[in-house]
Amino acid sequence: MDYHNQAFTLLELLVTLVIFSLLSLTGLYYYQSHRAKTQLGLFARQLYADLSYAKEQAWLQQDIITLCPIQSNWHNGYDIQLNTTRLLIRTPAYPKKMQIQSHFGLNHPCVYFEPNGHIAFNGHFLYTHLNNTAQAKIIFTQSGKMHLTLS
Question: Which residues lie across from 105 on neighbouring strands?
């Protein structure tokens, strides 16, 4: 039996390594993209739930409820207030690669829920991963309807 003809050649090993490396890099890219979307989705869903809570509290308390950024920066978190009483404080640990933008009516810093559950101004929140691999958006109208989209 001749054992010299049964081994892999150097060329076959190199081709196998190149194919394996390409598949690994592709998998790593998709994993990072999926991870970014998952992170953004978690933060956006938490904010969506907190907006729903604020809307519900406005209706239950029959008073104006505000959801405002802490120290005028959404990255510091936000709080939900009834007059000067804080109902909820959310201080998320946002990843450094996440950007948050908000726009309400005439650039108001807060979301105001009226006693009937309506929002004082149309607006949206936009969460974006800095390398643009993922985006989450919460859109709401004055009638109090909210819609969350993840892409």
Answer: none
Q: Are the beta carbons of 133 and 31 closer than 8 angstroms? A: no
pTM over 0.70: yes
54 SS3 class: helix
Q: Which of the 8 DSSP states describes residue 115?
A: T
Q: Where are the domains of the chain?
A: 39-150
In terms of CATH, what superfamily is 39-150?
minor pseudopilin epsh domain (3.55.40.10)
The rounded distance, in Å, linking the Cα atoms of 76 and 72 is: 8
Tokens of 95: 């990843």
**Would you state the structure tokens that stand for residue 38, as one six-digit string?**
């998952």
Question: Could you read off the pLDDT of 26-72 as tens digits, one per residue?
Answer: 888 888 778 878 888 888 888 889 999 999 999 999 999 999 888 88
Residue 151 one-letter amino acid: S
Task: Give the whole-angstrom CA distance, residue 28 versus residue 48.
Answer: 30
Q: 95: pLDDT confidence band, cut at 50, 70 and 90? A: low
Question: Would you place residue 103 in the very low, low, confident or very high pLDDT band (cuts 50, 70, 90)?
Answer: confident
Cα distance between residue 76 and residue 69, in whole Å = 7
**One-letter amino acid for residue 33 of the chain:** S
